[in-house]
């Protein structure tokens, strides 16, 4: 089953974020002195931001990817994809977590670093599995000769 375009992006983001919300809430709760409600609220913010960032980032990445002569998603390209997404996410979530959980920037950094390492692996694995189930997007697929 090959899934393309907006339908692919919506399916990707909805599935990814549902799992990420549950894991994020547990992470924020487990590694801070915050209540489950505050951790959940931060996870909701993180998920809402991530949905927006995911759509924007994947659109930019696929635009860049479509201009490459070599098609497909090898290990290097998958690592670039995951690192770029997580760096953009860290820029926003680090100060938000410090403020919302009332923790220092250093504590927020270590909390986010742990979450980013986890989500780096999660993003890599999720995208690989998603591509295996739904096929590569047109931007990464090898063109069929006419």
Please characterize this protein's 3D structure:
- By secondary structure, the chain is mainly alpha-helical.
- It has one domain.
- About 75% of the residues lie in helices and about 0% in strands.
- It contains four helices and no strands.
- The longest helix has about 30 residues, at about 35-65.
Could you provide a short overview of the structure?
The protein is an all-alpha fold and 146 residues long. The protein has four helices and no strands.
What is the secondary structure topology, with strand pairs?
Elements lengths: L4 H26 L5 H31 L8 H26 L4 H30 L12
Main attributes of the structure:
mainly alpha, 146 residues, 0% strand
